[in-house]
């Protein structure tokens, strides 16, 4: 009997040669590093360079997070990935009333250039690439990074990294938006232009399906809605006057990896194929790099269990393997205790060790795209692709990603799938080891890491000092210049230049975001749910 895939199509008990019959291998598979990139974006893939081991981390103060990054580098991580606390993500200083109780909780608190300097102390920005999970205030954090690079003597053209900067999925699934879609997209286009001129090796956006998946999206929904957002960003940049090959090579993506290894590997392969075709056929991209879907993967946090947490080590290894078999460029493997609390030093190290075992002890990195030609995997790739294309068409029929968001389409589809998963789990049809099968009478005790609540006061004290020391007139002049640029028509002035001056004059994150809020207003979602 066929079993249903996570995307909702049947998986046959047996696939045979008929699965590959009638396919044009050039068109569907190609060579690795060649259009449509089904087999991976680089000809040599991991035989040339392993994926980047990029563990998402950050909590408490900049000093504590800096210590964690240095330890991760010592243990062999090959890229950094910064988690910011909620006030930073929402554009508020640590002493804002709305920040109370949240400072340093889910990531590091960054109020100004001073915190940023501490965060990267002793970390050579010309040798490490850094991802920053920041969306509405992405431009600010990028500029702070550039300013710290300048202080270290690293030219902007040599900086490498990624800002998430994907505000559309914030409206759909993640929630840290500030401004309405119009000005948010204008800011994204300003970032694309700024990076092209000033920080050309920077990945200007990480178009993310991960959070939709965590909210319950199926694999097909995850890639369809993410690629639809990608298409909207491409249209935005084109409308702002950029040529497609001037920005598309620096678009990047971010997906989840679940324990359903075969379908996940198929999903990554299908996503690459769809994107390559869209970029070439719909947008006329000629530069091969514009057609390559490069992506980061995080193992599925939502599949981790608080019960018998050590079982998560096994899950993460399988999920990580799926990402590698799918050809990821960069990977975060979750720590086994993440369903309970922030990872401890030891669990963070174990998570990294999982990647090191995959890269160095297994043979999956010895040959490029080892799954190619598998009857099952090629069939699943076609099936995920077909399901995703169908959803992409529905988004287009609604008028594109933003119009669909405003009609609540993606959210509703995702919630429907989340409900299905919950029902199947409750009924025991979907097995979760240690939760609805093979339970323990009594769980073993576990001592989680807790963030010190005193951090909020420390950040407030730093802000009082900063505000007393800096040149107040220079700060308000810089903020006025920023507002003026924000008031101008999209495309007339790039807000990043005055924003950089304000940050260099030690304006705080909250002040810069408030200046933009004054001009652009804030987004209030339609009350559909
Ligand atoms: C493009 C990626 C995906 C990966 O970039 P990387 O720099 O790591 O890898 P890369 O670009 O593939 O490789 C680095 C350089 O080596 C080259 N290179 C790599 N492999 C090669 C090969 N086999 N042959 C030849 N060259 C190769 C590349 O061309 C590139 O050079 P050039 O540079 O010269 O081209 C980027 O966007 C990225 O790092 N993203 C990470 C996103 C992230 O960590 N997000 C965390 C979100 S955490 C979250 O959101 C979840 C929780 C929450 O809600 O908060």
What does this structure look like?
Residues 6-521 form the Methylmalonyl-CoA mutase alpha/beta chain catalytic domain. With 529 residues, this protein is α/β, with parallel strands linked by helices. The chain is built from 22 helices and 11 strands. It has helices at 25-28, 45-48, 62-74, 86-90, 113-119, 138-151, 167-174, 181-198, 210-214, 219-239, 244-247, 261-282, 288-291, 311-325, 345-360, 375-397, 401-406, 409-427, 455-469, 472-487, 496-504, 509-520, and strands at residues 3-4, 10-11, 52-57, 79-83, 130-133, 161-163, 202-203, 205-208, 251-257, 295-299, 330-332. A 9-stranded parallel beta sheet has the order 7-6-5-4-3-11-10-9-8. A two-stranded antiparallel sheet has the order 1-2. The longest helix is centred in the last third of the chain and has 23 residues, at 375-397. The mean pLDDT is 96. It binds succinyl-coenzyme A (SCA).
Tally of alpha and pi helices: 22
- Uncertain segments: none
Evaluate the radius of gyration.
Answer: 23 Å
Bound molecules: succinyl-coenzyme A
Main beta sheet strand tally, sense and closure: 9 strands, parallel
The percentage of residues in β strands lies in: 5-15%
How would you sum up the global shape? globular
The total count of strands amounts to: 11
Mean pLDDT: 96
Q: Going across the major beta sheet, what is the strand order?
A: 7-6-5-4-3-11-10-9-8
Q: How many angstroms does the end-to-end distance come to?
A: 37 Å
How helical, in percent, are the residues?
40-55%
Structural class comes to: alpha/beta
């Amino acid at each position: 009997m066929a079993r249903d895939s996570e995307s909702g199509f049947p998986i046959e008990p047996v696939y045979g040669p008929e699965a590959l019959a009638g396919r044009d291998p050039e068109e569907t598979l190609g060579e690795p590093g060649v259009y449509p990139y089904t087999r991976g974006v680089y000809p040599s893939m991991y035989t040339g360079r392993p994926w980047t081991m990029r563990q998402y981390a950050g909590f408490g103060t900049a000093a504590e997070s800096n210590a964690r990054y240095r330890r991760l580098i010592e243990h062999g991580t090959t890229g950094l990935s910064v988690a910011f606390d909620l006030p930073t993500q929402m554009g508020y200083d640590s002493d804002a009333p709305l920040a109370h109780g949240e400072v340093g909780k889910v990531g590091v608190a960054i109020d100004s250039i001073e915190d940023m300097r501490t965060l990267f102390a002793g970390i050579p920005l010309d040798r490490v690439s850094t991802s920053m999970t920041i969306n509405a205030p992405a431009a600010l954090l990028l500029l702070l990074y550039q300013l710290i690079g300048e202080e270290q003597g690293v030219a902007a053209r040599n900086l490498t990294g990624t800002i998430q900067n994907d505000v559309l999925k914030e409206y759909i699934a993640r929630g840290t938006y500030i401004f309405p879609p119009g000005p948010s997209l204008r800011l994204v286009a300003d970032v694309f232009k700024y990076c092209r001129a000033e920080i050309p090796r920077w990945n200007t956006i990480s178009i993310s399906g991960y959070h939709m998946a965590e909210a319950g999206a199926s694999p097909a929904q995850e890639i369809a809605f993410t690629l639809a957002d990608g298409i909207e960003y491409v249209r935005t940049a084109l409308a702002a006057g950029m040529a497609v090959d001037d920005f598309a090579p620096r678009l990047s993506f971010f997906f989840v990896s679940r324990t359903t290894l075969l379908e996940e590997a198929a999903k990554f392969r299908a996503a690459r194929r769809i994107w390559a075709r869209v970029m070439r056929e719909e947008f006329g991209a000629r530069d091969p790099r514009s057609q390559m879907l490069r992506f980061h993967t995080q193992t599925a946090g939502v599949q981790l269990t608080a019960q018998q947490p050590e079982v998560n080590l096994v899950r993460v290894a399988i999920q990580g393997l799926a990402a590698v078999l799918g050809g990821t460029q960069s990977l975060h493997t979750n720590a086994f205790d993440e369903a309970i609390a922030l990872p401890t030093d030891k669990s963070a190290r174990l998570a990294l060790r999982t990647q090191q075992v995959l890269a160095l002890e297994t043979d999956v990195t010895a040959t490029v795209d080892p799954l190619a030609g598998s009857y099952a995997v090629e069939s699943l790739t076609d099936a995920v692709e077909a399901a995703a294309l169908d959803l992409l068409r529905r988004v287009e029929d609604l008028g594109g990603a933003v119009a669909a968001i405003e009609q609540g389409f993606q959210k509703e589809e995702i919630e429907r799938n989340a409900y299905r998963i919950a029902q199947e789990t409750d009924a025991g049809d979907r097995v979760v080891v240690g939760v609805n099968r093979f339970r323990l009478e009594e769980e073993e005790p576990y001592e989680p890491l807790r963030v010190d609540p005193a951090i909020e006061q420390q950040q407030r004290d730093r802000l009082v000092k900063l505000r007393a020391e800096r040149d107040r007139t220079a700060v308000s002049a810089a903020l006025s210049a920023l507002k003026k640029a924000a008031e101008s028509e999209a495309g007339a002035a790039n807000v990043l230049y005055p924003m950089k001056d304000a940050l260099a004059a030690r304006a705080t994150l909250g002040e810069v975001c408030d200046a933009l809020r004054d001009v652009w207003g804030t987004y209030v979602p339609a009350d559909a749910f």
